[in-house]
Amino acid sequence: MSGPAPFAIRLDQARASSAALRAELDAWCGRARDEETWKRYRSQLERLGRTIGGLLGKADEGAQDLGEDAAGWRALDTFERALLAANGIWSYFRSKYMFRDHPSLGQMLRLADDFAWDCYRPVQKACAPQAPREPPLVYFSEMWSPFAMARDRSFANELHFAESGTARVLEDEAFEQMLARLPLPLVSLPWLYASSPPGLLVVAHEVGHIVAADFGFDGALRAAIDAATWQQGAALWQGWREEVFADLFGVAAAADGFVGGLATLLAIAPDRLAAETRVGGRYPPRGLRMEIALGALARRNSPRADELRQRWNAAYPDQGDFTAFASDAARMIDLVFGLACGQAKLGALFTINEVNVTALLGRAVQGAGLTNPNFDAIAALVLAQRLGDGRIGGVPVEKTMTAIRKFVDTRPTGYRGSSPAASEPRQADLELGQALWLELAQPAD
Prior knowledge:
Blueprint lengths: L5 H29 L7 H21 L7 H29 L6 H23 L9 E5 L5 E3 L14 H7 L2 H7 L6 E5 L12 H12 L2 H11 L6 H33 L3 H6 L10 H14 L5 H11 L10 H12 L2 E2 L2 E2 L8 H13 L10 H12 L8 H11 L15 H18 L5
Parallel strand pairs: 1-3
Antiparallel strand pairs: 2-3, 4-5
Helix pairs in contact: 1-2, 1-3, 2-3, 2-17, 4-7, 6-17, 7-9, 8-9, 9-11, 9-13, 9-15, 11-12, 11-13, 14-15, 14-16, 15-16
Protein backbone atom coordinates (compact mmCIF):
# COMPACT_ATOMS: atom_id res chain seq x y z
CA MET A 1 0.00 0.00 0.00
CA SER A 2 1.54 3.26 -1.13
CA GLY A 3 1.27 6.62 0.58
CA PRO A 4 3.07 9.92 0.89
CA ALA A 5 6.83 9.68 1.10
CA PRO A 6 8.50 10.56 4.43
CA PHE A 7 9.94 13.73 2.87
CA ALA A 8 6.48 14.97 1.86
CA ILE A 9 5.03 14.11 5.26
CA ARG A 10 7.72 16.02 7.11
CA LEU A 11 7.45 19.00 4.77
CA ASP A 12 3.66 19.15 5.20
CA GLN A 13 4.10 18.84 8.95
CA ALA A 14 6.55 21.74 9.01
CA ARG A 15 4.33 23.94 6.85
CA ALA A 16 1.38 23.22 9.12
CA SER A 17 3.52 24.17 12.12
CA SER A 18 4.45 27.48 10.50
CA ALA A 19 0.82 28.27 9.69
CA ALA A 20 -0.29 27.34 13.20
CA LEU A 21 2.27 29.66 14.80
CA ARG A 22 1.21 32.52 12.53
CA ALA A 23 -2.43 31.92 13.45
CA GLU A 24 -1.62 31.86 17.15
CA LEU A 25 0.33 35.13 16.97
CA ASP A 26 -2.51 36.73 15.02
CA ALA A 27 -4.97 35.58 17.69
CA TRP A 28 -2.90 37.09 20.51
CA CYS A 29 -2.58 40.38 18.62
CA GLY A 30 -6.33 40.30 17.98
CA ARG A 31 -7.01 40.02 21.70
CA ALA A 32 -4.73 42.99 22.31
CA ARG A 33 -6.68 45.06 19.79
CA ASP A 34 -10.16 44.06 20.95
CA GLU A 35 -10.12 43.19 24.67
CA GLU A 36 -9.79 46.08 27.10
CA THR A 37 -7.56 44.34 29.63
CA TRP A 38 -5.23 43.22 26.84
CA LYS A 39 -4.83 46.59 25.10
CA ARG A 40 -1.93 47.44 27.42
CA TYR A 41 0.04 44.64 25.70
CA ARG A 42 -0.79 45.50 22.10
CA SER A 43 2.49 47.21 21.22
CA GLN A 44 4.51 44.38 22.76
CA LEU A 45 2.59 41.59 21.05
CA GLU A 46 2.56 43.30 17.68
CA ARG A 47 6.31 43.80 17.75
CA LEU A 48 6.89 40.19 18.73
CA GLY A 49 4.48 39.13 16.00
CA ARG A 50 6.33 41.14 13.37
CA THR A 51 9.75 39.85 14.41
CA ILE A 52 8.72 36.21 14.53
CA GLY A 53 6.66 36.74 11.39
CA GLY A 54 9.77 37.98 9.60
CA LEU A 55 11.56 34.79 10.60
CA LEU A 56 8.64 32.63 9.46
CA GLY A 57 8.31 34.51 6.18
CA LYS A 58 11.90 33.82 5.18
CA ALA A 59 11.59 30.24 6.40
CA ASP A 60 8.46 29.69 4.29
CA GLU A 61 10.20 31.15 1.23
CA GLY A 62 13.10 28.76 1.66
CA ALA A 63 10.72 25.80 1.80
CA GLN A 64 9.02 26.44 -1.56
CA ASP A 65 9.39 24.03 -4.48
CA LEU A 66 11.62 21.56 -2.67
CA GLY A 67 12.65 18.41 -4.43
CA GLU A 68 13.32 15.12 -2.66
CA ASP A 69 17.06 15.30 -3.24
CA ALA A 70 20.07 16.19 -1.08
CA ALA A 71 19.44 19.93 -1.48
CA GLY A 72 15.77 19.46 -0.61
CA TRP A 73 16.59 17.56 2.57
CA ARG A 74 19.05 20.28 3.60
CA ALA A 75 16.42 22.95 2.98
CA LEU A 76 13.86 20.98 4.98
CA ASP A 77 16.34 20.69 7.85
CA THR A 78 16.84 24.46 7.81
CA PHE A 79 13.08 25.01 7.68
CA GLU A 80 12.52 22.81 10.73
CA ARG A 81 15.33 24.50 12.67
CA ALA A 82 13.82 27.90 11.91
CA LEU A 83 10.42 26.73 13.13
CA LEU A 84 11.93 25.38 16.35
CA ALA A 85 13.72 28.68 16.93
CA ALA A 86 10.58 30.71 16.18
CA ASN A 87 8.49 28.57 18.51
CA GLY A 88 11.20 28.71 21.17
CA ILE A 89 11.35 32.51 21.08
CA TRP A 90 7.57 32.81 21.20
CA SER A 91 7.26 30.13 23.89
CA TYR A 92 9.55 32.18 26.13
CA PHE A 93 7.13 35.12 25.97
CA ARG A 94 3.91 33.11 25.65
CA SER A 95 4.47 31.51 29.04
CA LYS A 96 4.56 34.97 30.59
CA TYR A 97 1.49 36.31 28.81
CA MET A 98 -0.60 33.24 29.59
CA PHE A 99 -0.52 33.99 33.32
CA ARG A 100 -2.45 37.21 32.54
CA ASP A 101 -5.51 35.00 32.05
CA HIS A 102 -5.26 33.53 35.55
CA PRO A 103 -8.09 34.92 37.74
CA SER A 104 -5.86 36.14 40.59
CA LEU A 105 -2.32 36.13 39.19
CA GLY A 106 -3.56 38.02 36.14
CA GLN A 107 -4.70 40.93 38.28
CA MET A 108 -1.40 41.09 40.13
CA LEU A 109 0.59 40.96 36.91
CA ARG A 110 -1.52 43.67 35.30
CA LEU A 111 -1.05 45.79 38.41
CA ALA A 112 2.71 45.22 38.22
CA ASP A 113 2.72 46.01 34.49
CA ASP A 114 0.76 49.21 35.03
CA PHE A 115 3.06 50.25 37.86
CA ALA A 116 6.08 49.62 35.62
CA TRP A 117 4.44 51.68 32.87
CA ASP A 118 3.59 54.54 35.24
CA CYS A 119 7.25 54.58 36.34
CA TYR A 120 8.56 54.34 32.78
CA ARG A 121 6.16 56.66 30.95
CA PRO A 122 7.18 60.04 32.50
CA VAL A 123 10.82 59.41 31.62
CA GLN A 124 9.97 58.39 28.08
CA LYS A 125 7.72 61.42 27.66
CA ALA A 126 10.42 63.80 28.90
CA CYS A 127 13.47 62.19 27.29
CA ALA A 128 12.26 60.75 24.00
CA PRO A 129 8.67 61.79 23.18
CA GLN A 130 9.27 61.27 19.45
CA ALA A 131 10.62 57.74 19.85
CA PRO A 132 8.41 55.90 22.34
CA ARG A 133 9.34 52.37 23.29
CA GLU A 134 7.39 49.42 24.58
CA PRO A 135 7.09 49.23 28.38
CA PRO A 136 8.59 46.43 30.50
CA LEU A 137 6.76 43.14 30.93
CA VAL A 138 6.69 41.78 34.50
CA TYR A 139 6.58 38.09 35.37
CA PHE A 140 6.97 35.88 38.43
CA SER A 141 9.81 33.38 38.68
CA GLU A 142 11.50 31.06 41.15
CA MET A 143 14.48 33.44 41.47
CA TRP A 144 14.95 34.78 45.00
CA SER A 145 15.71 38.39 44.05
CA PRO A 146 13.97 40.67 41.55
CA PHE A 147 15.96 41.44 38.41
CA ALA A 148 15.57 43.25 35.10
CA MET A 149 16.51 42.24 31.58
CA ALA A 150 17.05 45.37 29.51
CA ARG A 151 16.41 45.48 25.78
CA ASP A 152 20.08 45.03 24.97
CA ARG A 153 20.48 41.79 26.92
CA SER A 154 20.23 38.51 25.07
CA PHE A 155 18.05 35.80 26.60
CA ALA A 156 19.57 33.02 24.49
CA ASN A 157 20.44 31.10 27.65
CA GLU A 158 16.73 31.00 28.49
CA LEU A 159 15.92 29.11 25.28
CA HIS A 160 16.29 25.35 25.57
CA PHE A 161 16.70 23.33 22.38
CA ALA A 162 17.82 19.73 22.23
CA GLU A 163 18.07 19.61 18.42
CA SER A 164 21.76 19.92 17.58
CA GLY A 165 21.45 22.28 14.63
CA THR A 166 19.38 24.78 16.56
CA ALA A 167 21.64 24.47 19.59
CA ARG A 168 24.62 25.26 17.37
CA VAL A 169 22.98 28.47 16.18
CA LEU A 170 22.01 29.52 19.68
CA GLU A 171 25.66 29.32 20.70
CA ASP A 172 26.62 31.69 17.90
CA GLU A 173 27.55 35.22 19.00
CA ALA A 174 25.76 36.83 16.06
CA PHE A 175 22.51 35.03 16.93
CA GLU A 176 22.81 36.19 20.55
CA GLN A 177 23.27 39.75 19.37
CA MET A 178 20.11 39.44 17.30
CA LEU A 179 18.16 38.11 20.27
CA ALA A 180 19.40 41.11 22.23
CA ARG A 181 17.56 43.32 19.74
CA LEU A 182 14.16 41.93 20.62
CA PRO A 183 12.03 44.84 21.74
CA LEU A 184 10.77 43.91 25.19
CA PRO A 185 12.53 44.58 28.49
CA LEU A 186 11.54 42.15 31.23
CA VAL A 187 11.24 42.36 35.02
CA SER A 188 11.30 39.18 37.10
CA LEU A 189 9.75 39.10 40.57
CA PRO A 190 9.89 36.23 43.07
CA TRP A 191 6.73 34.18 43.40
CA LEU A 192 6.78 35.32 47.03
CA TYR A 193 5.30 38.64 45.84
CA ALA A 194 2.47 37.14 43.80
CA SER A 195 -0.15 37.81 46.49
CA SER A 196 1.18 41.05 47.98
CA PRO A 197 0.53 44.40 46.27
CA PRO A 198 3.17 46.17 48.43
CA GLY A 199 5.77 43.70 47.18
CA LEU A 200 5.32 45.05 43.66
CA LEU A 201 6.93 48.35 44.62
CA VAL A 202 10.41 46.90 44.05
CA VAL A 203 9.52 46.95 40.34
CA ALA A 204 10.47 50.65 40.46
CA HIS A 205 14.10 49.68 41.12
CA GLU A 206 14.10 47.31 38.15
CA VAL A 207 12.48 49.91 35.89
CA GLY A 208 15.35 52.16 36.97
CA HIS A 209 17.79 49.72 35.36
CA ILE A 210 15.71 49.74 32.17
CA VAL A 211 15.42 53.53 31.87
CA ALA A 212 19.16 53.81 32.56
CA ALA A 213 19.81 51.60 29.52
CA ASP A 214 17.08 53.05 27.30
CA PHE A 215 17.79 56.75 27.83
CA GLY A 216 21.53 56.92 28.43
CA PHE A 217 21.49 57.71 32.15
CA ASP A 218 24.18 55.17 32.97
CA GLY A 219 26.74 56.79 30.71
CA ALA A 220 25.84 60.25 31.98
CA LEU A 221 26.14 59.14 35.60
CA ARG A 222 29.44 57.39 34.95
CA ALA A 223 30.87 60.63 33.54
CA ALA A 224 29.45 62.69 36.41
CA ILE A 225 31.04 60.39 39.00
CA ASP A 226 34.42 60.66 37.27
CA ALA A 227 34.15 64.45 37.33
CA ALA A 228 33.21 64.70 41.03
CA THR A 229 35.32 64.58 44.19
CA TRP A 230 34.71 61.71 46.62
CA GLN A 231 35.83 60.98 50.15
CA GLN A 232 35.66 57.24 49.50
CA GLY A 233 37.01 57.38 45.96
CA ALA A 234 35.28 57.39 42.58
CA ALA A 235 36.01 53.70 41.93
CA LEU A 236 33.81 52.60 44.83
CA TRP A 237 30.85 54.64 43.61
CA GLN A 238 31.38 53.54 40.04
CA GLY A 239 31.07 49.96 41.26
CA TRP A 240 27.83 50.80 43.05
CA ARG A 241 26.60 53.17 40.34
CA GLU A 242 23.96 51.00 38.67
CA GLU A 243 22.29 49.78 41.87
CA VAL A 244 22.37 53.18 43.59
CA PHE A 245 20.82 54.75 40.50
CA ALA A 246 18.04 52.14 40.50
CA ASP A 247 17.32 52.72 44.21
CA LEU A 248 17.21 56.48 43.72
CA PHE A 249 14.97 56.11 40.69
CA GLY A 250 12.62 54.08 42.87
CA VAL A 251 12.57 56.87 45.46
CA ALA A 252 11.92 59.44 42.74
CA ALA A 253 9.04 57.42 41.28
CA ALA A 254 7.27 56.01 44.34
CA ALA A 255 8.68 57.97 47.31
CA ASP A 256 7.82 56.48 50.71
CA GLY A 257 6.07 53.53 49.07
CA PHE A 258 9.31 52.41 47.45
CA VAL A 259 11.45 53.10 50.54
CA GLY A 260 9.07 51.00 52.63
CA GLY A 261 9.24 48.22 50.04
CA LEU A 262 13.04 48.46 49.92
CA ALA A 263 13.22 48.13 53.71
CA THR A 264 11.22 44.90 53.47
CA LEU A 265 13.41 43.59 50.65
CA LEU A 266 16.64 44.32 52.55
CA ALA A 267 15.45 42.97 55.89
CA ILE A 268 17.60 40.20 57.41
CA ALA A 269 18.42 39.09 60.95
CA PRO A 270 19.85 42.06 62.91
CA ASP A 271 23.08 40.25 63.75
CA ARG A 272 23.72 39.51 60.08
CA LEU A 273 23.11 43.10 59.05
CA ALA A 274 25.37 44.37 61.82
CA ALA A 275 28.12 42.06 60.58
CA GLU A 276 28.02 43.33 56.99
CA THR A 277 31.37 44.85 56.10
CA ARG A 278 30.94 44.84 52.32
CA VAL A 279 32.92 47.66 50.71
CA GLY A 280 32.96 46.99 47.00
CA GLY A 281 30.98 44.84 44.60
CA ARG A 282 27.78 46.01 42.94
CA TYR A 283 25.74 46.83 46.05
CA PRO A 284 26.47 49.03 49.06
CA PRO A 285 25.85 47.40 52.46
CA ARG A 286 22.16 47.20 53.34
CA GLY A 287 22.44 49.87 56.00
CA LEU A 288 24.08 52.29 53.59
CA ARG A 289 21.49 51.55 50.89
CA MET A 290 18.78 52.53 53.34
CA GLU A 291 20.71 55.64 54.39
CA ILE A 292 20.89 56.74 50.76
CA ALA A 293 17.22 55.97 50.11
CA LEU A 294 16.08 57.73 53.29
CA GLY A 295 18.28 60.71 52.48
CA ALA A 296 16.71 60.92 49.03
CA LEU A 297 13.23 60.65 50.53
CA ALA A 298 14.01 63.55 52.86
CA ARG A 299 15.30 65.48 49.85
CA ARG A 300 11.86 64.99 48.34
CA ASN A 301 10.41 66.63 51.47
CA SER A 302 8.39 63.54 52.28
CA PRO A 303 6.55 63.86 55.61
CA ARG A 304 7.16 60.12 56.14
CA ALA A 305 10.95 60.19 55.87
CA ASP A 306 11.52 60.55 59.61
CA GLU A 307 8.96 57.85 60.44
CA LEU A 308 10.56 55.35 58.08
CA ARG A 309 14.01 56.16 59.43
CA GLN A 310 12.82 55.58 62.99
CA ARG A 311 11.27 52.25 62.00
CA TRP A 312 14.46 51.09 60.30
CA ASN A 313 16.72 52.22 63.14
CA ALA A 314 14.45 50.55 65.69
CA ALA A 315 14.67 47.27 63.78
CA TYR A 316 18.46 47.63 63.28
CA PRO A 317 20.00 49.63 66.12
CA ASP A 318 23.45 48.26 65.24
CA GLN A 319 23.91 48.66 61.51
CA GLY A 320 27.34 50.21 61.27
CA ASP A 321 28.60 53.77 61.18
CA PHE A 322 28.19 55.34 57.76
CA THR A 323 29.25 58.83 58.78
CA ALA A 324 32.27 58.61 56.49
CA PHE A 325 29.91 58.06 53.55
CA ALA A 326 27.52 60.92 54.35
CA SER A 327 28.92 63.55 51.99
CA ASP A 328 29.42 61.01 49.20
CA ALA A 329 25.85 59.73 49.59
CA ALA A 330 24.48 63.27 49.39
CA ARG A 331 26.53 63.86 46.26
CA MET A 332 25.17 60.71 44.62
CA ILE A 333 21.63 61.88 45.34
CA ASP A 334 22.47 65.24 43.76
CA LEU A 335 23.98 63.62 40.69
CA VAL A 336 21.14 61.17 40.07
CA PHE A 337 18.28 63.57 40.78
CA GLY A 338 20.06 66.19 38.67
CA LEU A 339 20.45 64.05 35.54
CA ALA A 340 18.98 65.82 32.53
CA CYS A 341 15.84 64.31 31.04
CA GLY A 342 14.83 66.49 28.13
CA GLN A 343 14.15 69.92 29.62
CA ALA A 344 13.60 68.48 33.11
CA LYS A 345 15.68 66.85 35.82
CA LEU A 346 15.13 63.20 36.64
CA GLY A 347 14.35 63.91 40.30
CA ALA A 348 11.56 66.32 39.35
CA LEU A 349 9.60 64.07 36.98
CA PHE A 350 7.39 62.41 39.59
CA THR A 351 4.97 63.67 42.23
CA ILE A 352 2.90 61.40 44.43
CA ASN A 353 -0.69 62.59 44.05
CA GLU A 354 -1.85 62.49 47.67
CA VAL A 355 -5.35 63.50 46.59
CA ASN A 356 -5.52 60.33 44.50
CA VAL A 357 -4.12 58.22 47.35
CA THR A 358 -6.79 59.57 49.71
CA ALA A 359 -9.53 59.16 47.12
CA LEU A 360 -8.47 55.58 46.39
CA LEU A 361 -8.56 54.78 50.09
CA GLY A 362 -11.99 56.31 50.59
CA ARG A 363 -13.57 54.56 47.65
CA ALA A 364 -11.95 51.23 48.54
CA VAL A 365 -13.23 51.36 52.12
CA GLN A 366 -16.70 52.25 50.88
CA GLY A 367 -16.65 49.35 48.46
CA ALA A 368 -17.07 51.77 45.56
CA GLY A 369 -15.54 51.21 42.16
CA LEU A 370 -12.13 52.74 41.60
CA THR A 371 -12.77 53.76 38.00
CA ASN A 372 -11.12 57.13 37.47
CA PRO A 373 -8.78 58.03 34.61
CA ASN A 374 -6.73 60.15 37.03
CA PHE A 375 -5.91 57.25 39.33
CA ASP A 376 -2.54 55.64 38.70
CA ALA A 377 -0.82 52.46 39.81
CA ILE A 378 1.85 54.40 41.72
CA ALA A 379 -0.79 55.93 44.00
CA ALA A 380 -2.46 52.51 44.41
CA LEU A 381 0.75 50.77 45.48
CA VAL A 382 1.88 53.62 47.73
CA LEU A 383 -1.48 53.24 49.47
CA ALA A 384 -0.94 49.47 49.69
CA GLN A 385 2.48 49.98 51.29
CA ARG A 386 1.13 52.42 53.87
CA LEU A 387 -1.65 50.00 54.73
CA GLY A 388 0.80 47.12 55.02
CA ASP A 389 3.02 49.15 57.33
CA GLY A 390 0.06 49.89 59.59
CA ARG A 391 0.40 53.62 59.01
CA ILE A 392 -3.30 54.05 58.32
CA GLY A 393 -5.37 53.03 61.33
CA GLY A 394 -8.99 51.96 61.43
CA VAL A 395 -9.04 50.65 57.86
CA PRO A 396 -10.02 47.10 56.81
CA VAL A 397 -6.69 46.17 55.25
CA GLU A 398 -7.68 43.03 53.34
CA LYS A 399 -10.80 44.66 51.91
CA THR A 400 -8.76 47.60 50.72
CA MET A 401 -6.00 45.40 49.29
CA THR A 402 -8.64 43.48 47.32
CA ALA A 403 -9.97 46.75 45.94
CA ILE A 404 -6.46 47.79 44.92
CA ARG A 405 -5.98 44.51 43.07
CA LYS A 406 -9.28 45.03 41.25
CA PHE A 407 -8.45 48.65 40.48
CA VAL A 408 -6.16 47.67 37.63
CA ASP A 409 -9.05 46.25 35.59
CA THR A 410 -11.06 49.48 35.81
CA ARG A 411 -8.50 51.98 34.55
CA PRO A 412 -8.24 52.92 30.87
CA THR A 413 -5.30 51.29 29.13
CA GLY A 414 -4.73 52.27 25.50
CA TYR A 415 -1.68 51.85 23.31
CA ARG A 416 1.71 51.87 25.02
CA GLY A 417 4.82 52.33 22.97
CA SER A 418 5.49 53.32 19.39
CA SER A 419 2.54 54.18 17.18
CA PRO A 420 0.85 51.20 15.50
CA ALA A 421 1.45 52.96 12.17
CA ALA A 422 5.11 53.87 12.78
CA SER A 423 7.04 52.53 9.80
CA GLU A 424 10.56 52.53 11.28
CA PRO A 425 10.00 50.01 14.12
CA ARG A 426 7.74 47.92 11.88
CA GLN A 427 10.50 47.59 9.28
CA ALA A 428 13.18 47.00 11.95
CA ASP A 429 11.12 44.19 13.49
CA LEU A 430 10.65 42.52 10.11
CA GLU A 431 14.35 42.81 9.25
CA LEU A 432 15.32 41.32 12.60
CA GLY A 433 13.18 38.26 11.94
CA GLN A 434 14.72 37.89 8.50
CA ALA A 435 18.23 38.19 9.96
CA LEU A 436 17.43 35.44 12.46
CA TRP A 437 16.45 33.16 9.59
CA LEU A 438 19.63 33.92 7.65
CA GLU A 439 21.68 32.92 10.68
CA LEU A 440 19.70 29.71 11.07
CA ALA A 441 20.12 28.94 7.37
CA GLN A 442 23.90 28.78 7.61
CA PRO A 443 25.15 25.23 7.08
CA ALA A 444 26.48 23.36 10.09
CA ASP A 445 30.25 23.08 10.43
